[in-house]
Design brief:
Layout (H helix, E strand, L loop, with lengths): L18 E9 L5 H9 L16 E7 L4 E8 L3 H8 L3 H5 L2 E9 L5 H18 L4 E7 L9 H14 L7 E4 L6 H11 L5 H14 L4 E6 L5 E6 L11 H20 L10 E5 L4 E6 L4 E7 L3 H22 L18
Parallel strand pairs: 1-3, 1-4, 4-5, 5-6
Antiparallel strand pairs: 2-3, 7-8, 7-11, 9-10, 10-11
Helix pairs in contact: 6-8, 7-9
Length: about 350
């Protein structure tokens, strides 16, 4: 583990600025914004979102994502009156210092042309006050479309949305709260925001090689989104391309069940170690750093399993340095004023 303990690899002694990113979650009322937010960040399962009401004006929440990144999430109500207010009286307040815009389209909207006009107005305001922000498009509720028509309808919608996006190059996703597509979209969005990602990925790869793993996944603690991953040549042959999102979904449901039967809060730590030993492979998920879990998939073998787990415990300190909260400092490149807005 010498490389992982090399202090020159990531100078923890150097103060790192706290990253604060303002994230706008927008879309017409009923498009599913609050439901997906509750599933990703509040440990809801899909059926529990039915009791959520409409968002009134802006629902602000601060989500700590890894030690050095805070998402200032603005869930903006989609009723016409609120949209008009965002674009007029609150225009500068809402659209200044935006790091990411996530815009949700309801695939079954009865007035998609009008939805596009609203989106076009939002993009114009974003271009005025936050021209360097990233834009992600979620074409939502895809489960309501007949399977053999989904791809064509989705592609048509995306082409129209891109035509109204001005200088922005939105990244689209087809999503539903009833499958793992929601985790895939949000994991990729968050992946682009995580500080120190290059260092995290470097050390994760070194750890995977040292313990002779087939695959190593680093999950964020509360949302269980995959922050980073590494796989060996054997692991790369896994034919299940959406396994990361499936894994996130399975673990979130496991935590839900544990919470229900133990009486612990949904956001609490329900487990610190989960082991699985089968004839073809071994797997463990361990509480890793303050803000992460680590999943390791290995070939079978008790000695290999125990050695890998011990080395992961040894590697914790290096990853804790990368994940450690920075000293308080205004990050001029992010949203130094967003938290006060």
């Amino acid at each position: 583990m010498d490389n992982l303990n090399d202090s020159t690899a990531s100078p923890a002694s150097e103060p790192r600025k706290q990253k604060k990113k303002k994230v706008l979650l927008m879309g017409k009322s009923g498009s599913g914004k609050s439901s997906m937010r509750s599933i990703i960040f509040s440990n809801y399962v899909a059926k529990d979102t039915r009791r959520l009401g409409a968002t009134i004006d802006v629902d602000l929440s601060s989500v700590k994502f890894l030690g050095n990144l805070t998402l200032n999430l603005w869930d903006c109500g989609g009723q016409d009156a609120f949209m008009e207010n965002y674009l007029s009286q609150q225009r500068q307040h809402v659209f200044s210092n935006v790091g990411v815009l996530i815009y949700v389209f309801d695939i079954e909207s009865r007035d998609f042309d009008r939805d596009l006009l609203t989106y076009r107005s939002i993009i114009a305001a974003l271009g005025q006050f936050s021209p360097t922000s990233s834009v992600y498009i979620l074409v939502h509720k895809m489960d309501l479309v007949v399977p053999n028509q989904r791809e064509d309808i989705y592609n048509d919608r995306v082409a129209l949305i891109r035509s109204k996006s001005d200088a922005f190059a939105p990244i689209p996703f087809a999503t539903s709260i009833w499958d793992q597509s929601l985790y895939k979209a949000w994991a990729e969005i968050i992946h682009d925001l995580v500080p120190n990602l290059d260092q995290i990925e470097k050390h994760l790869g070194e750890l995977g090689e040292m313990i002779e793993a087939e695959e190593v996944l680093l999950f964020e603690r509360s949302s269980f989104l995959v922050v980073s991953s590494w796989c060996s040549a054997i692991g790369a042959m896994n034919p299940t391309s959406d396994r990361f999102e499936r894994f996130s979904n399975i673990i979130k449901n496991f935590k839900q069940t544990t919470s229900r039967y133990t009486g612990t809060p949904k956001s609490a730590e329900q487990f610190s170690l989960l082991e699985m030993k089968l004839p073809n492979f071994s797997l463990f998920i361990v509480k890793f750093t303050t803000n992460t879990y680590l999943s390791v998939c290995l070939p079978p073998g008790e000695e290999r399993f125990n050695s890998a787990m011990e080395n992961c415990y040894i590697a914790r300190n290096k990853f804790e340095d990368l994940d450690a909260p920075a000293k308080k400092s205004a990050d001029r490149g992010a949203t130094s004023g967003a938290t006060e807005a």
